[in-house]
Amino acid sequence: MKGVKRTNVRWMMVVFLFIVTAINYGDRATIGIAGKSMSGELGFDAAAMGWVISSFSIAYVIGQLPGGWLLDRFGSKRVYFCSIFFWSIFTLLQGTIHFFIGAWALIMLFTFRFLMGLAEAPSFPGNSRITAAWFPAKERATAVSIFNSAQYFATVIFAPIMGWLTHEYGWQSVFFFMGGLGIFISFVTIIMVHNPKDHPWANKEEVEYIAEGGGLVDMDQKKEEGKEDQGPKLGYILQLIKNRMMLGIYLGQYCINVLTYFFITWFPIYLATERGLDIKSVGFLAAIPAVCGFVGGIAGGVFSDFLLRKTGSLSIARKTPIVFGMLFSMMMILCNYVDSITMIIFFMSLAFFGKGVGALGWAVMSDTAPKEISGLAGGLFNMFGNASSIISPIIIGYIVHVTGRFEWALVFVAAHAFLAAFSFLFIVGPIKRMEVKKNQFSNY
After folding, report:
1. What is the pLDDT of residues 189-235, one digit of tens each?
2. pLDDT 10s digits, 164-176
3. Domains of the chain, with CATH numbers?
4. CA angle 304, 305, 310 (to 5 degrees)
C-alpha cells in the first residue's frame, strides 16, 4: 500500500546480535579476569591453566560443523536459543568448581570450559544466517560490522565489571554474573528471533525491501512434507571445500584471525616482556588498539556498503576494504624499528584499525553461503578461522622461545595479513552466492 512507512526491525535485530556477541566474548574472557584468584585459591599451576584455556578453543573448532548442520536442520531460532542458554549454563557452573576437591576441580573446570566451547559453536554461523535473512546485500556489511565489533567492545563493557566483582565478591561471582546474564538473554531470543516473514513487528514493506535486495527472508520456512532435502547432507562439505571461491574465503578468514588472536593473546605479553611495561600500563595501552579495531570495524562495513551502492559489484565492495585493510595492518612490522612506546602503540593502533576495516569475512559469508546449507557453510568457515586460535599462538610462542625476541613473530603475523589480501585478490574470484548440486551426494 502506497505511503505506508517501512519498519526497521532489521536494525533492532543487529543490536540484539551485538549484545549477544558482546556477552559471548565476555564469557570467553571470564577465565582471564578470574583466573589469577581462582588458580591461587585452588592451586592450579600455569600449565594446568593453559590446558583449561585451550579446552574452549578445541571444543569450539570441533563444534563448528555440527553446529552449522543443526542451524540448517532446525533453524536459527531454536538453535540460537539453545546455544546461548547452554553456554551460559556452563559459564555459570564454572563458579561452582571450588566444591570439588583436588584434581577433580581442574577436571570439572576443563569439562565446563570444553562444553561451553561446544555450546558457543553455532553462535557466529547463527549471526551470519540471521544477517543473511534480515538484510539486503547493500546493508549487509554494515550490519555484520556492527555485531562483529562487539568482540572489541566486550572488553570495555565487561572487564571493569568482572574486575570489580572479583575484588568485592570473589572470583566465583564473575561466572555467576555472566552466566545469569546469558540465561536471561537466551529467553529474549524467543521474542526477537523470527523469520522476517513471521516477525510480528516487521511489516510487509520491510520484508519486501529485504527480499528485493537479496535477503533470504524465507530461509527457515518449513519444507514441504515429503520433499527430499530435509536438511544438509554431509556430502555438501565436499562441494564447499572443492569450490575455489569458498576455499579462498576460508583461507582468508584463517589468516585474518591470526591477527585477532595475536592481539588477544600475545600483544599484552609483547608489551610487558619485550617493552618492559608494568601490568597496569599494559592494561591501559592494550585497550587503545582495541578501540581502533572497533572504529575500523564499523568503518569497513559502512565503506563496503557505500561501494556496493556506488558500483553494484559485490566483489569490489567486499574485496576493497579487506585487501586495503590487511595491507594496512602490516604496519605492525614498523614496531621492529622503533623504541618509543608511543610510536609502538601508534603503529599497532594503525594495524588493528586496518584489521578492523578488513574483517568482513562474515559479510562475505552471508553473501556467498548456499541458502540450503548456510549454517553448514558458516560452520566450516568459522572452523577454518578459529583453527588459528589453536595453531598461531603456539607458533608465535615457539618463535619467541627460539629467537628470544618478538621481531620475527611480528613478521609472521604480518605475513598472514598479506596472505589474506592475496587470497581475496587472486583465489576467491567473483563474489556471488554459491549454488549446490542437491542430488550429487544423495548417498552421504
Report:
1. 998 888 888 888 988 888 889 988 888 777 666 543 444 444 456 67
2. 888 788 888 989 9
3. 8-215 (1.20.1250.20), 233-432 (1.20.1250.20)
4. 100
Q: Measure the CA–CA gap between 388 and 265, rounded to whole angstroms.
A: 12
Which of 219, 248, 192, 159 lies closest to 80, judged by CA? 192
- Report d(CA 34, CA 165) in Å as an integer: 9
Distances (CA, A) of 255 to 78, 359, 387, 413: 32, 11, 10, 8
Q: What is the 3-state secondary structure (H, E, C) of the chain?
A: CCCCCCCCHHHHHHHHHHHHHHHHHHHHHHHHHHHHHHHHHHCCCHHHHHHHHHHHHHHHHHCHHHHHHHHHHHCHHHHHHHHHHHHHHHHHHHHHHHHCCCHHHHHHHHHHHHHHHHHHCCHHHHHHHHHHHHCCHHHHHHHHHHHHCHHHHHHHHHHHHHHHHHHHHCCHHHHHHHHHHHHHHHHHHHHHCCCHHHCCCCCHHHHHHHHHCCCCCCCCCCCCCCCCCCCCCCCHHHHHHHCHHHHHHHHHHHHHHHHHHHHHHHHHHHHHHHCCCCHHHHHHHHHHHHHHHHHHHHHHHHHHHHHHHHHCCHHHHHHHHHHHHHHHHHHHHHHHHCCCHHHHHHHHHHHHHHHHHHCCHHHHHHHHCCHHHHHHHHHHHHHHHHHHHHHHHHHHHHHHHHHCCCHHHHHHHHHHHHHHHHHHHHHCCCCCCCCCCCCCCCCC
Nearest to 389 by CA among 56, 36, 1: 56
Q: What angle do CA 70, 361, 16 make, to 5 degrees?
A: 60
214: its cell numbers = 537479496
Residue, of 382 and 221, whose pLDDT is higher: 382
Residue pLDDT, tens place only, 51-90: 777 788 889 888 888 888 888 888 888 899 999 999 999 9
Q: Are 116 and 58 in contact (CB under 8 A)?
A: no
Sign of CA dihedral 58, 64, 70, 71: positive
Contact predicate 109/55, CB 8 Å: no
Query: The pTM is what?
Result: 0.76
- Is 4:203 a contact under the CB 8 Å cutoff? yes
For 58, the grid coordinates are 578445541
